[in-house]
Amino acid sequence: MSALTSDSWVLEGQKGFSSLKLVKDRPVPDLGDFDVLVKLYAASLNYRDLVIAKGSIPLPGFTPGVVPCSDGAGIIEAVGSRVRSFKAGDKVCTHLVSRLPASEVPSFSDINSGLGQHIDGTLRSRGVFHESALVSMPPALSFTEASTLSCSGLTAWNALFGIAGHAPKEGSSVLVQGSGGVSIAALQFAVAVGATVIATTSSDAKAGRLKSLGTHHVINYRTDLAWGETAKRLTPNGRGVDIVVDVGGLSTLPQSFKAVKSNGVIALTGMLGQSEDQAAVPSLIDCMLNVCIARGLLLGTRDQFVEMNRFVAENGVKPIVDEKVFGFGDAKDAFRYLESQKHFSKVCIQWE
Predict the structure, then answer these.
(1) How many CB atoms neighbour CB 288 within 10 A?
(2) Which residues form the Enoyl reductase (ER) domain (predicted)?
(3) How far apart are CA 141 and CA 145, in angstroms?
(4) What is the Cα–Cα distance from 338 to 348, expressed in whole angstroms?
(5) pLDDT band at 279, cuts 50/70/90?
(6) N or C end: fewer C-beta atoms under 10 angstroms in the chain?
(7) Which long-range contacts (CB under 8 A, 24 or more apart) does 270-279 make?
């Protein structure tokens, strides 16, 4: 065993945030041939992290004592004897799923066996990762900014650019829902290529922030229950939105179908809401009736991660972090803040 140690948060059970425990000087394992030692400086939280800690949605278990969180960034301190992709001193982001070919899309099974659930994640000062769980981070970003890319950024990138011939461009339109991490990342990517962005929110304060990021139209979905039809009217000749990034699932899909144009794309990236009327939930038949594509997606490939990071660097995209950033010792408060849904974009923990 290596003489190195790491201060680490571990998840001892699934009874909520009381199950999180800070362990000082936890031993760091020796490097395997394809392993990389990373000194971590920041992590960002996802809804998945809440679910795992609380056991609120049945998932295929977790490993007691696992280090939570999948998203993080840091500097490589050492590499295994057969690692060729990285060297000491490289700045990297984590990828939730390891040991997959770079072009393979992660499945639910892959994600449920990934970082922060069955493999030690990022909420620690130092960690050993398989080289396939890392990508080079955009050089101009801070570690905190880069830590937001692992899940939210990559999911947004796949939602927008994952189908050849349907990527957003100047003159096309994108609808994003709310102000969570995936929606804000998708907004930023769409603005960077010159697309018209329509966003929904329930808060006037958040509407102002959405506009400051380049959103062209903001719709309050609480006061405008037919926001999908409103979004459609805001597009040229009322033809509809080219890409809808749907994060709500059952609660938002009916309006997403109202908004999308013929031959447009609904990218289903989340299941944050429930439907009060199950009969109103769209089915595959709605794809035919609306002549559109609806695709479910989880994260993206490692190749897409590399492509996204290149785009971020070339276009000067700066990921948005909530104004309230937490210290390493305040991880439980960060989890509670995410649960409160008072955040804008990504909740981050930093110790850089």
Answers:
(1) 9
(2) 16-349
(3) 6
(4) 10
(5) low
(6) N
(7) 270/47, 270/180, 270/182, 270/246, 272/47, 272/180, 272/247, 272/248, 273/248, 273/249, 274/250, 275/250, 275/251
pLDDT(258) > 70: yes
Distance in angstroms (rounded) separating the CA atoms of residues 201 and 94: 30
Handedness of CA 3, 116, 201, 138 (dihedral sign): positive
Query: Would you say the C-alpha torsion 334, 336, 338, 341 has a positive or negative sign?
Result: negative
Angle between helix axes 302-315 and 154-161 (nearest 10 degrees) is 90
What CATH number is given for 155-296 in this structure? 3.40.50.720
Half-sphere exposure of 37 (CA within 13 A, CB side): 19
3-state secondary structure of 260: strand
CATH code for residues 5-148+321-350: 3.90.180.10
pTM for this prediction: 0.95
Check if the beta carbon of residue 126 is closer than 8 Å to that of residue 161. no
Averaged confidence pLDDT in the chain: 94
Mean pLDDT of 37-55: 95
Q: What is the per-residue pLDDT across 129-180, written as a single tens digit (0 to 9) for each?
A: 999 999 999 999 999 999 999 999 999 999 999 999 999 999 999 999 999 9
How many CA atoms, within 13 angstroms, populate the side-chain half-sphere of residue 165? 3
Domain span(s) for CATH 3.40.50.720 in the chain: 155-296
* Sheet (strand 293-296) strand order: 217-220, 196-201, 173-177, 241-246, 260-268, 293-296
Q: What own/partner pairs with CB < 8 Å and gap ≥ 24 does 199-205 have?
A: 199/175, 200/175, 200/176, 200/227, 200/231, 203/179
How far apart CA 125 and CA 321 sit, in angstroms, is 20
Dihedral of the alpha carbons of 211, 217, 222, 223, in degrees to the nearest 10: 120
For residue 137, give Cα distances in angstroms to 58, 120, 347: 33, 20, 19
In this predicted structure, the answer to whether residue 278 has a pLDDT above a threshold of 70 is no
Distance (Å, rounded) from C-alpha 56 to C-alpha 75? 34
Residue with tokens 């409103």: 230
246 pLDDT exceeds 60? yes
Least Cα distance to 105 among 268, 266, 243, 303 occurs for 303
